[in-house]
Amino acid sequence: xxxxxxxxxxxxxxxxxxxxxxxxxxxxxxxxxxxxxxxxxxxxxxxxxxxxxxxxxxxxxxxxxxxxxxxxxxxxxxxxxxxxxxxxxxxxxxxxxxxxxxxxxxxxxxxxxxxxxxxxxxxxxxxxxxxxxxxxxxxxxxxxxxxxxxxxxxxxxxxxxxxxxxxxxxxxxxxxxxxxxxxxxxxxxxxxxxxxxxxxxxxxxxxxxxxxxxxxxxxxxxxxxxxxxxxxxxxxxxxxxxxxxxxxxxxxxxxxxxxxxxxxxxxxxxxxxxxxxxxxxxxxxxxxxxxxxxxxxx
Length: 298
Fold this sequence. Notes:
The protein is of the alpha+beta class and 298 residues long. It has helices at 9-16, 51-64, 111-115, 138-154, 188-198, 216-229, and strands at 29-34, 67-72, 84-89, 97-102, 121-122, 127-131, 159-162, 174-177, 181-183, 208-211, 237-245, 248-255, 262-271, 288-297. The strands form 2 sheets. Strands 5-4-3-1-2-7-6-8-9-10 form a 10-stranded mixed beta sheet. The chain has a 4-stranded antiparallel beta sheet with strand order 11-12-13-14, with helices on one face. The relative contact order is 0.15.
């Protein structure tokens, strides 16, 4: 009897050619909690924390529409410093804000609730998050950890492994926060190249899933502009107008800097055939993809 080959969602997605652009989930606020023990499959919700503290953080995160991620440094070393937490906030003008702290016991995490209403500090470098949440999805560990190792070798102070960020089939996934930029289908070599360019404010269409302050169709339109016009800074283009007609969008993307053009992009949405989209999700699901029907300059 032949043993069926093990299913890996990222391998299957690459064979299907699943499009990346337009797959970044919305997000403008991130809560990061360093947790060095094993991560539960459901991340923060599964931590054995004091129930009252966890409930307060969870409620505050929902009110702020914040994503809560567990983080850790790559490798098995146990640093002497206490674990950290952070609140990262995206602002459209690029002047992002961050607030960091440490925690010794569960009650220290209640400080996150207060910080969510505080402005935060400007001027900090971005955080590079690599999904390596193996208990949530096998591909996130198999593909994410080599990427985390390569990026940590280059930028040890910026890079963290993290829990589920969405889009397991696009592993390895990297999120730069609070910039709000998702990249996918990365390996160790491409990740170093992509993050290196991002850190000098050059976003490329290759491997770009989207900007988290845009809706999926807008993400796909902006990726099309970058693919046509070349890499650009995170805030070099702005979505000026979006008109929707059913499963079609007409989106105007305008360059903010001298020498950058304006573009009219038409996007069509289509629903793919049902597939198994994650390693552990045995039911079939049908994803929506956003295709570029036309792109005109002017």
